Amino acid sequence: MELTEAINRAKQNDQIAFNFLLDSFWNDVYAFQLKRTKNENDAEDITIQTFSKAFDKIDTYKDKYKFKTWLITISKNIHIDLVRSQKKSIRNTSKDNEDHYFDIIDDSPSPEDKIITEQNLANLLRDIKKLKPHYQEVINLRYFQELSYKEISEELNEPMNNVKVKLLRAKKLLAEIITKS
């Protein structure tokens, strides 16, 4: 499949075209993020978010730009947003011009937070059960058993890119279920 054809078919919501684009550009986006984050898990998560956002906004892609450049730009912006949100969690305050200190927020959960977390987890598990079994399985393996894509691929005896796409679709479907309820 040619790149232009794949992009046009992806704009028509063709799953094969999405798989082709994911296969073609996954390593480029992942390598870019690995250099930026120096963390495999963060790079992987940002890469997944990149493709998810790109596939959601594929209609906005203009062919005057290279597709890879468009993806890298999306990826870079996602990373910048994550860094900004992390910086907001630690406030830098000062008493005098000379005395600087960091006011670190206490993240330990209160009893109320623990109850809320348990309720949210119960709701999440209920929503996950609304997915088709193969989506439930891939979410379970990735987020509850914390397996890597390679380990999931071996467990399911499927190519790694299929696992990535399945997980991407499962997360998208789960988000739709959660927003409806």
Compact summary:
Residues 126-174 form the RNA polymerase sigma factor 70 region 4 type domain. It comes from Winogradskyella vincentii. The chain is 72% helix and 6% strand.
Structure description:
With 181 residues, the chain is mostly helical. The protein folds into two domains: 3-87, RNA polymerase sigma factor, region 2, helix turn helix motif (Rna Polymerase Sigma Factor, Chain: A, Orthogonal Bundle), CATH 1.10.1740.10; 110-180, Winged helix-like DNA-binding domain superfamily/Winged helix DNA-binding domain (Arc Repressor Mutant, subunit A), CATH 1.10.10. It has helices at 3-11, 15-37, 40-56, 67-89, 111-128, 133-144, 149-156, 160-180, and strands at residues 90-94, 100-104. The longest helix is centred in the N-terminal third of the chain and has 23 residues, at 15-37.
